[in-house]
Write a structure and sequence with these properties.
The chain is α/β, with parallel strands linked by helices. It is 37% helix and 14% strand. Bound molecules: NADP nicotinamide-adenine-dinucleotide phosphate.
C-alpha cells in the first residue's frame, strides 16, 4: 500500500506556489496582531500615555495624541451634524484624549462654538487650545493678519465666551504678523497670563529666530507647525532644534497630511468647493494625488507585516521622533478616532523606521504643500 498522501498534481503545484510566495515575503515582525481594521475587537482603546509640552511654568501635560476639531465645521468637505460631532468629541474624551485644537478662523467662529458647547463640561480635565491672528470681522475672515495687542485682548475675551471658559488653557498666535513686533505679542500674552485670562501660549509656523525672541519674553509651551511624512521642513529649518534646546513642546498639525496618508483619497476624490482648502493645495490636484499615491503604497507594504494601517504608521512615526511631540489628527469618525489612538502603542525598532524613511526618500513628491500666498505667511 502506498502511504504517500493522495494529493493531485494540481493541488500540489498550488501548494508549492503558495509556499514559495510566503517565502518571498519580507521577514515578519516577531509578533503580528491584527490591529486594524478590527471588526471583532470590542475593546475600546484607551489613550493612557501622557506627554508634557513645555517646561517649568510653561509645562502642560496632555494625552500623547490630541484631536484636531477643525474639520468638524471647516475645510474638510462634508461633516456630520452638530449632534454627531458633539457625540464624537465626548467619545474622544472617554477614550482618554485631553488635548483639543480649534481656532477663531475655523468656520470662522463655528468651530470654537462647537468646541465650547461640547467640551466646556470637561474643562477641569482637558485642554482646549485656540488661536488668534487671522483677522475676522463680522464673522468673516479678511485674509489679513491682526495681532495688535488690543486685538489679541479682544479676541481673547471673545474666545473665552465662545469656548465657555474663564481661562484659555492654550492660546496660539496662528500666523506671524509682520506689522507687530513679536516682543509686543509675547508681552501682551504675558499680561493676559498675569491677569488669569490665559494659562499657556504657543505660536504656529514661525522661524527659530522668532521662537527665541518670543520665548525670552514669555516662555512658550508649544510650537504648532505642519509636520508629517510628506512635509519635514521643521527637521532642517532649526525649529525642532530650538524646541529641543529651549524645552518647548511641538504639535504637528495635519499629521496625516489632511487625510492623504490615511489612504482613503485618490485622484477621483472631489473636495467640496465651498468648504475644503485641499482643492487649493498643489499637492491635492488629481495629477499630484495620482503620483503621490506611491507614498501610500509604501505605507501599505510597510504596515501589512506589522498589523498597522497607513494612518497609524504616519502618527506612530511622529510620536517616535521625540516624547515632546503631540500630533493632533482630526476626524469625524469613531472608527478613525480609535484607529488613530492605537498609534500611541506602535513600538518599532529604530532600524524599521529607517527602512521606512529610506523607502520614502526614493519618491519625489509632486506639488508644494501650500500655494504661494499661503506659503508667504509661514516661516517668519
Ligand atoms: N496651526 C495651523 O496652521 C493648522 C493648520 C491646519 C490644521 N491645524 C490643526 O490640525 C488639525 C488636523 O489637521 P487636518 O484636519 O488638516 O489634517 P489631518 O489630521 O492630517 O487629516 C484629517 C483628515 O484625515 C482623515 N482621517 C483621520 N483619521 C484617518 C484615518 N485613520 N484613516 C484615514 N483617514 C483619516 C479625516 O477624515 P475623516 O473625518 O473621514 O476621518 C480628515 O479628513 C486640525 O483639526 C487643526 O486643529 C492647524
Amino acid at each position: 500500500m502506498n502511504d504517500t498522501p493522495n494529493i493531485s498534481r494540481r493541488v500540489f503545484l498550488k501548494t508549492a506556489a503558495a509556499a514559495a510566495a510566503i517565502a518571498a515575503l519580507p521577514p515578519i515582525a516577531k509578533k503580528t496582531y491584527a490591529r486594524n481594521p478590527a471588526p471583532n475587537d470590542n475593546v475600546c482603546p484607551m489613550l493612557s500615555q501622557k506627554r508634557t509640552l513645555g517646561k517649568g511654568t510653561a509645562a502642560m501635560e496632555v494625552s500623547a495624541l490630541g484631536f484636531g476639531v477643525m474639520g468638524m465645521t471647516y475645510n474638510r468637505s462634508r461633516h456630520p451634524d452638530k449632534k454627531q460631532c458633539i457625540r464624537l468629541l465626548h467619545q474622544a474624551v472617554d477614550h482618554g484624549v485631553t488635548l483639543f485644537d480649534t481656532a477663531i478662523i475655523y468656520g470662522p467662529l463655528s468651530n470654537e462654538l462647537l468646541a465650547g458647547e461640547a467640551l466646556s463640561p470637561f474643562k477641569d480635565k482637558i485642554i482646549v487650545s485656540t488661536k488668534f491672528g487671522h483677522e475676522v470681522i463680522n464673522g468673516k475672515g479678511t485674509g489679513r493678519q491682526d495681532s495688535r495687542p488690543e486685538t489679541i485682548r479682544r479676541y481673547c475675551e471673545e474666545s473665552l465666551k465662545r469656548l465657555r471658559l474663564d481661562t484659555l488653557p492654550m492660546f496660539y498666535q496662528h500666523r506671524f504678523d509682520s506689522q507687530v513686533p513679536v516682543e509686543d505679542v509675547a508681552g501682551t500674552i504675558k499680561d493676559l497670563i498675569r491677569e488669569g485670562k490665559v494659562l499657556h501660549w504657543g505660536m504656529c509656523e514661525v522661524s527659530s529666530e522668532t521662537i527665541r525672541k518670543a520665548h525670552a519674553v514669555q516662555p512658550l509651551t508649544a510650537i504648532q507647525s505642519e509636520y508629517h511624512l510628506m512635509h519635514r521642513d521643521v527637521e532642517t529649518n532649526g525649529v525642532l532644534d530650538v524646541c529641543r534646546e529651549l524645552g518647548i513642546g511641538f504639535v504637528p498639525y495635519s499629521p496625516i497630511n489632511r487625510g492623504f496618508l490615511g489612504g482613503n483619497i485618490n485622484e477621483y476624490t472631489r473636495f467640496d468647493p465651498d468648504n475644503d482648502n485641499r482643492q487649493t493645495l498643489p499637492r491635492f490636484t488629481p495629477e499630484a494625488i495620482r503620483r503621490n499615491l506611491q507614498i501610500v503604497e509604501v505605507l501599505n507594504r510597510f504596515g501589512r507585516t506589522r498589523g498597522l494601517t497607513p494612518a497609524q504608521i504616519a502618527l506612530g512615526w511622529l510620536l517616535n521622533k521625540a516624547d515632546w511631540i503631540v500630533p493632533i489628527p482630526g476626524t469625524t469618525k469613531l472608527a478613525h478616532l480609535e484607529e488613530n489612538i492605537r498609534a500611541a502603542d506602535v513600538r518599532l525598532q529604530p532600524q524599521e523606521w529607517k527602512t521606512l524613511e529610506n523607502e520614502l526618500s526614493k519618491i519625489k513628491i509632486m506639488g508644494s504643500r501650500y500655494p504661494a500666498d499661503q506659503q508667504a505667511l509661514v516661516g517668519k
